[in-house]
Amino acid sequence: MTAGERNGADESIEVGTPSDPEAALARLAGRHAVGYRSVGVMAYDIIREAILDGTLPPGHKLRQETLAELIGVSRLPVRSALIQLESDGLVEFHDRRGAVVKSLSVEQAREVYQLRILLETAALRQSMADMTDQRLARLRELGRTADAKQEGGDFVDARTAFYAELYDAARRPIQWELIEQLRLKVGRYMLGWRLVGDDTHHHSHDELTDAVAAGEVEPAVQLLQHHLEGVRDGVLEMLEAESLAQAAPARRRRSRG
Amino acid sequence: MTAGERNGADESIEVGTPSDPEAALARLAGRHAVGYRSVGVMAYDIIREAILDGTLPPGHKLRQETLAELIGVSRLPVRSALIQLESDGLVEFHDRRGAVVKSLSVEQAREVYQLRILLETAALRQSMADMTDQRLARLRELGRTADAKQEGGDFVDARTAFYAELYDAARRPIQWELIEQLRLKVGRYMLGWRLVGDDTHHHSHDELTDAVAAGEVEPAVQLLQHHLEGVRDGVLEMLEAESLAQAAPARRRRSRG
DNA sequence: AGTCTGCATCTTGGATCCAGAAATCACGAT
DNA sequence: ATCGTGATTTCTGGATCCAAGATGCAGACT
């Protein structure tokens, strides 16, 4: 109860930074303020979401004090959250120097997609061997939702729900856990993917559902693989552009004009 | 056979201390006592090792206070360690009631080995496509060491080093990370595996190295897969025996969901 | 006599406080 | 003027303290 009351009402703490991650984070904190059993997991959810939706960009330094103030809790649950996020591979601890948002290198992204293709095509094969009408129906619904939402906060969530059903996550919890870990690593770049990707993917989930419904294993696997490769290429493009952008602006503060 | 001395019957049914896990833990704590930068990671290492070598059996209740005293630190780094271990899948938190050592079900073990076969055969294929003489030499050495050590505390470590080299872990860090996660889940049961496994595996690492050196991909993959399946069967046997032992003296005590 | 409810105790989870280390800034020397 | 060195300041990591929730037992009521 005490935790939910600080809704971060005045986010005017440090207004002035260009992207204002603090204001956005305070807004996130407000949305998550109520209905949590422990503030530790609340802090975890807030920071996690902030990283995944780009509010806290890769490389951003995560000061415990600031985060604690913005979320409205003590530094301790923030530390817990950061430790969890480190295990998730989203943040990185520097020995006595605090934590930063982990950024993904091009090689890492390539490896992630290689692994996703390996794990997800295997999951699809296994899942299709055991398909039921009920799951197909749910799949259609979820696929339609996923295809419809091409942007927004629940963009990733819709896809996650679709693939969870597609891979029959309930029957292979560990495999799904691994897949989710991998998706988490690239989730932050998925938002930008649509911007550079063309429109050929707009109905991919529906097409995939068709192949699954028809029981055609190899075509379905091919569809999935091509889809993942397409997303991968988009993410890679974005990453390369980002790394170029980071290399260029070596602006000194004291540079004379 | 130091590892398998307990007959497994009275092991960890309740909080009852079969052979004083506290004393063993204190010994572990002594070994780890010096040379750590932060006590949080020390606590993590100690508890992790205690779980993996069976000192803290599955189902064991982990009281923060006790652990803190045994390790010789405050409860806070213990909490940090437990949070990390939860992310590793080794312990499980029950909302306001503390943490317990997670136990592995037969289904979970089966899934773990299914995934290990998938990921590790893929890693082997990729690694063999890029083999060098230096790595082969290191591999021979590590394989010999692994085959030699059939017991003891560094039993698992020797194998880990061998497979890290075999899969060229340095070039595929994420894939190796996933493999390590999976190996971690079954590591606690690997110690007992040798007891039920026959002696046909005694030179498996050396044989595997031979196939790798010869550049014969499919035979090497087959060797690896068979090896993993053999270990899997041993672990499954052990798990089934253990679950039977647990089923018999059913001390029901308000089990929770 | 059995069961439900209320109280006491234990244990986790959170906050505040303290110490150690690292980065920064200022001052001095070259 | 620039670089190196030392002091200050800031921030992380740890310990102790406090509150909230859950469990278990005991007593009372049906």
TrEMBL record, chains A, B:
Glycoprotein is among the record's keywords: no
Keyword annotations from UniProtKB, A to Z: DNA-binding, Transcription, Transcription regulation
Protein name, entry field: GntR family transcriptional regulator
Domain of life: Bacteria
GO molecular function: DNA binding; DNA-binding transcription factor activity
Record-annotated HTH gntR-type domain positions: 37-104
